[in-house]
């Protein structure tokens, strides 16, 4: 049946169609649209709830609202509903394709799988097609977290939602869609407080535990999500995108992340079945020598300090007990690489006695050989935080290897940069602090400090030196970006005094110099400056300069504030736990990893990569890719 709440006013109002709009997420969308003045057509199978939704829409300000009782898999009736809507309102501005079902048993009986795919995927595809043909300016497909992450208890549901998200990506690139001026996107919410989710939680204790673990006990509210959907469909940048939305455990606004294309990773095949081929087969497939970067002269001019040398490849019987041979695939570049090459970590006398020594701090790779007593399987992806990481291969104590889910550029970024941010913020203490200032925020570690502070529900002020870096920080969720160079230059001290009169609770500072002075001067009562590095008041290539900060004692004293230094290597016992947590946040989409787009593909490129980092032009983590230089010959 069809019921019209108010009179038809053709061509004079914004209008929208919402499938599955009687309950749950769809109802939240109807409410948001009604408040925004849209005329709405609701398509749903629940007549009682549908007519109640019409009455709600009227009360909230919708100029006209219609309910049609139909099954979204009945394409001829859906087509008729679209045609009547266009005839009634003179057009169609927005289509929100929300109708969806679950109900899997978690077994392989396959019951209901066909129906799930028909409703969740086929009907959304048909709705998207009809919306585009009828000139909808914005088309939203409601997908799910399950479109990105595995759902072992609901594989058909997850597959249908993944199909909907990829349909959006593909439709966005369709020539006819572009010509018609349609904007199409997918919304991928975490668990929402809907009748379907509540029913599943009552039916399955294990599903209930899973939902509460994922949401940290706080499900998304349908009205909050409806508001998010309405805002997102008005954003032209979202065309072809999938927007993940999850609740905020601290009670703040929901956290949102766009889902990018999965990066390609190199495939590293085993030599054969591990049950049939001994580990010595791996050793026999390698060359006789490998390349390594070493410091031969103490200098902060990196290209003058280092040289590439050839080292004999360790064989199976040469790997000491408890050790592994690692094929390095990606190495990270850090600002302190020049401090290391200049010997500043050891003192000049000791550093000279050590020459030559291996360069580089961090890498990820795979285990390709192991000594006695090592239980780690060949091919296991591992990370290392050891001197000498700028090399194609390396021998390492198995107990000092950090387990990672994959050997990738993103995992390199999580090492020195990610661990510094994660552990430093934990040590400094975010609890009770509301505002966090991150200096050099678009750099390797700054990007993680910004995001981790946001995940903790803090207001984040971020500084950077270019428009491109400001855009990166905006995408990472920074609340206030202060660009201190270029045509849009702002004075940080003035911004803080004008906009943050009560001061900043925590400063994550890797710059020092004048930036440190500004930070101390603008601390809140009982605020803290967390010093994780220093380049201000000198540069890495001119060394650490002695600095005097006038009035620091007085400023700290009367505010009860403090300055705390952080050096990552003092916290080695925390590495594995923090890295596991960072990797989980990354794989769940809650943490973005910005890798600098400039490519460096061999050890010969390391000096150039270091120079690029210090040029101020890098955006995100600078990584050297060794995959081309370190292939297994099988």
Task: Describe the 3D structure.
This protein has 634 residues and is α/β, with parallel strands linked by helices. The relative contact order is 0.08. The longest helix has 21 residues, at 113-133. It has 21 helices and 24 strands. The chain has a 9-stranded mixed sheet with strand order 1-4-3-2-5-6-7-8-9, sandwiched between helices. Strands 12, 14, 15, 16, 17 and 24 form a 6-stranded antiparallel sheet that branches. It starts with a strand and ends in a 9-residue tail after the last strand. Mean pLDDT is 87; it is low at 1-10, 270-284, 537-544 and 630-634.
**Which structural category do the helix and sheet elements fall into?**
alpha/beta
Q: β content, as a range?
A: 15-25%
The neighbouring-strand order within the major sheet is: 1-4-3-2-5-6-7-8-9
The number of helical elements comes to 21
Strand segment count: 24
Helix share of residues? 25-40%
Ranges where pLDDT stays below 50 over 5 or more residues in a row are: 1-10, 270-284, 537-544, 630-634
Rg on CA atoms, Å: 28 Å
The major sheet is characterized as: 9 strands, mixed
Instruction: Look at the structure and give the mean pLDDT.
Output: 87
| N-C termini distance | 67 Å
Question: What general form does the structure show?
Answer: globular
């Amino acid at each position: 049946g069809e019921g019209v709440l108010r009179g038809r006013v053709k061509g004079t109002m914004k209008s929208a169609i919402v499938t599955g709009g009687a309950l749950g997420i769809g109802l939240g969308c109807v409410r948001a649209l009604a408040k925004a003045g849209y005329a709405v057509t609701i398509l749903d199978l629940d007549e009682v709830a549908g007519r109640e939704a019409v009455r709600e829409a009227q009360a909230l300000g919708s100029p006209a609202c219609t309910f049609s009782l139909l099954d979204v898999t009945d394409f001829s009736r859906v087509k008729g509903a679209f045609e009547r809507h266009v005839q009634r309102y003179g057009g169609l501005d927005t289509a929100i394709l929300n109708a969806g079902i679950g109900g899997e048993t978690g077994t392989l009986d396959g019951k209901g799988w066909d129906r799930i795919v028909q409703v969740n995927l086929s009907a959304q595809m048909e709705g998207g097609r009809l919306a585009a043909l009828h000139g909808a300016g914005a088309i939203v497909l409601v997908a799910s977290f399950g479109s990105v992450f595995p759902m072992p208890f609901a594989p058909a549901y997850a597959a249908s939602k993944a199909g909907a998200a990829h349909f959006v990506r593909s439709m966005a690139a369709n020539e006819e869609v572009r010509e018609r001026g349609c904007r199409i996107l997918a919304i991928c919410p975490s668990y929402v407080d809907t009748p379907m989710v509540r029913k599943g939680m009552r039916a399955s204790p294990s599903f209930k535990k899973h939902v509460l673990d994922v949401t940290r006990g706080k499900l998304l509210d349908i009205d909050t999500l409806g508001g998010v959907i309405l805002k997102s469909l008005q954003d032209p940048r979202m065309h072809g995108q999938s927007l993940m939305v999850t609740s905020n455990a601290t009670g703040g606004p929901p956290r949102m992340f766009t889902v990018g294309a999965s990066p390609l990773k190199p495939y590293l095949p085993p030599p054969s079945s591990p049950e049939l081929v001994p580990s010595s087969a791996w050793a026999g497939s390698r060359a006789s020598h490998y390349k390594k970067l070493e410091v031969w002269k103490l200098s902060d001019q990196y290209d003058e300090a280092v040289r590439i040398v050839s080292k004999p490849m360790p064989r199976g019987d040469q790997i000491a007990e408890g050790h592994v041979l690692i094929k390095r695939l990606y190495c990270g570049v850090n600002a302190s690489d020049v401090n290391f090459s200049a010997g500043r970590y050891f003192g000049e006398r000791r550093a000279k006695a050590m020459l030559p020594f291996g360069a580089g701090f961090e890498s990820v790779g795979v285990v390709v050989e192991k000594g006695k007593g090592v239980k780690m399987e060949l091919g296991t992806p591992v990370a290392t935080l050891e001197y000498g990481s700028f090399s194609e291969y390396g021998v390492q104590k198995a107990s000092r290897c950090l387990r990672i889910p994959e050997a990738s550029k993103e995992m390199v970024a999580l090492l020195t940069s990610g661990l510094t941010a994660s552990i430093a913020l934990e040590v400094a203490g975010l609890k009770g602090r509301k505002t966090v200032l991150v200096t050099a925020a678009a750099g390797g570690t700054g990007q993680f400090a910004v995001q981790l502070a946001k995940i903790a529900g803090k207001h984040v002020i971020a500084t950077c030196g270019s428009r491109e870096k400001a855009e990166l920080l905006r995408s990472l969720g920074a609340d206030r970006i202060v660009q201190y160079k270029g045509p849009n230059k702002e004075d940080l001290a003035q911004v803080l005094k004008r906009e943050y009169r009560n001061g900043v609770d925590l400063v994550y500072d890797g710059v020092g110099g004048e930036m440190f002075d500004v930070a101390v001067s603008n601390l809140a009562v009982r605020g803290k400056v967390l010093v994780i590095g220093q380049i201000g008041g000198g540069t890495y290539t001119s060394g650490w300069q002695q600095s005097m900060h006038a009035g620091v004692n007085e400023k700290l004293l009367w505010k009860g504030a403090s300055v705390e230094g952080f050096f990552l290597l003092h916290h080695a016992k925390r590495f594995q736990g923090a890295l596991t947590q960072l990797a989980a946040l990354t794989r769940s989409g809650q943490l973005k990893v910005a890798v600098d787009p400039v490519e460096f593909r061999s050890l010969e490129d390391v000096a150039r990569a270091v120079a690029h980092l210090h040029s101020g032009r890098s955006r995100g983590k600078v990584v050297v890719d060794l995959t081309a230089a370190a292939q297994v010959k099988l």
